[in-house]
Amino acid sequence: MKNRSFLNKLGDFAMGKGFYIVLFLCVATIGISGYYLLQTVLGGTRAAEPAGGDASVTIPDHSVVQPSVPVPDERETVKTPTAPKTEIKTPVQPDDPEPVKESEPEPEAQNSGETLSKVFTWPVQGAVLRDFSVETLSLDPTMEDWRTHGGLDIAAAQGVNVLSISAGTVDQVYKDGLMGTTVVVDHGGGLQSWYCNLNEEVAVEAGDLVEIGGVLGTVGSTAIAEVGVDSHIHLETILNGQPVDPREYLN
User: Which run of H or of E encompasses 209?
Assistant: First the structure.
């Protein structure tokens, strides 16, 4: 009777306030179950993430001021410095200009272009024993062979005066080992006359001025290279360093 009474009371409680208690417990159980289920799902998702952590890309803040590069203004033009213009003035000719006098060249300039005199004479009067020959060979009476000959051998007795073929300046006086005592006269314009086989005593020295027909010395026998030729004077004419035929001037 007593137990029945307890059950009755429990039933009355369940039908009354007990109903709400049971409902609350059911809701709490469902909530707790859902919480653990959610934790289980979230835990599995985190386990699947890479061990290196999240890869993140940092986007620069546009608010940071970047150094600006000056951009040239297209409207600005570069001005290239230009050279100052030189005004060319045309010389004004006078109505009646005075004639310009030509300046006379100095004597040295005259001598460099032409000979001091265009008049020539023979150094001695006599026959030509051996002629000028530089392009063909001629018989050498001394060496008894055929060779060139750069001058004229003009017959003259020993002691006869040897004359300058034209006006000029004595350039050299010396003794040659083969051609004997030699006098060289410079006539200007690149022309020189050489007198060989003179006596040892001569009448001039280097630097002397001589006129046409001036005495340079006398015929001798000092040229051992031409002892096979009769008494004579050996005459050469040199133009700009090259031997030329003396007859071109003597004739």
Answer: strand 209-210
What is the CB-side half-sphere exposure of residue 195 using CA atoms within 13 A?
Answer: 31
Angle at CA 100, nearest 5°, toward 114 and 107?
Answer: 25
Residues 6+ apart with CB under 8 A from 152: 128, 130, 131, 132, 234, 235, 236, 246, 247
- Identity of residue 71: V
**pTM here?**
0.55
By the 8 A CB rule, do 189 and 115 touch?
yes
Token match 């799902």: residue?
41
Q: How confident is the model at residue 134 (pLDDT cuts 50, 70, 90)?
A: confident
CB-based contact 164:214 (threshold 8 Å) = yes
pLDDT band at 96 (very low <50, low <70, confident <90, very high): very low
Query: Distance between CA 232 and CA 248 in Å, rounded?
Result: 20
DSSP-based three-state secondary structure for 219: strand
Phi, psi of 145 (to 5 degrees): -145, 180
Closest CA to 152 of 171, 138, 173, 166: 138
Phi/psi for 59 (5° steps) reads -90, 125
SS3 94: coil
Largest CA distance in the chain: 204
Structure tokens at 178: 């083969």
Q: Where are the alpha helices (DSSP H) in the chain?
A: 2-15, 17-47, 107-113, 247-250
- The amino acid that residue 15 corresponds to is M
